[in-house]
Queue: 2 jobs
Job 1
Amino acid sequence: ERMRAAGLDVTVDVAGNIFGRRPGSDAAPKDREIATLPIDALDWKRFVHSQAGALAYHDPAWSLMLAECYGFRPFALGLFDGGRILAGVPVVETRTLRRRRRWISLPFTDHCPPLAVTASASPEFAAGLDGFRRHAGVERIALELLTMEPDFFSQLLLQLVSTEPVDQAIE
């Protein structure tokens, strides 16, 4: 809460350490960490276009269209290592009925799973998302995790839903 009041985006490394960056900065984080990135940042565009599994929904144009039509705040969540995006997903910020912050990837979208450079980046990204969400003061994060075969994200989802209260689970 203090970090947002000071005008900083919250950044949490995979070990749970909290950092801050100026909102809207295109500068990628320096160490391995989960951070937000503007949806139209050049690094995000390059990452999406380099991924064989990327869909039209991963492209910044889709998130920007949703933001314009519905008043959402779009951005990307990513796992960074030395300024390079290893895994990521586009999200929009909405509000719950109780006016609490909620991140969704992505509403009105058929299928938009997280992208990853390597198979090992997926579990690291998934493992850090809930801590990042909590440190950012966000009540919920909802990710589209439908896949043709079970993967780490699907397995993590099943574990979180069965062991945590609904308000704290990654959907």
Job 2
Amino acid sequence: EQNPLLIVVDDIQWCDSGSLDALTTLLLHQPEAKILLVATERVEGTPPPPLIRGEVVALGPLSERDIRELLQAMFDVGEPPTSLVEYLHRITEGKPYFLVELVRSLIESGEIRRVSGRWMLPLQPASELLPESLEDAIDRKIERLSIKTRKLADSACVIESDLTADLMEAV
């Protein structure tokens, strides 16, 4: 009762009804408790699940300025090349997850690399080395998995909501 509690739920749109009911019950039946629920959701035309009271903060795509600041923080560089920032913004349309995957691809391909302890960023990446879409980035990630892991992932896709740890172990 005296210690505050922070509950973070990423991608709440994927929560099953039982989990949402548990969160709602916790928040409704513990009014004296100091509970902060922070939930993220990819809103694509669907309203957020009704969870008591709160504030919805809609986040738009990342701007070129946001991308510049993110690159500065990630790679501890002064000013990243404007052409790189513009390229990343144009390709990712400011979608944070795709941006992170694209930057990972740049690191894996050697386009972004450490030289003498400092990160080197390209002026313009070689586009043939990079994923063209988020789906392409995910496909490339899946291709790097072992055959056994890919087969397990394929099975998990078919099983969907009935997926349990015991079932995955059996597969």
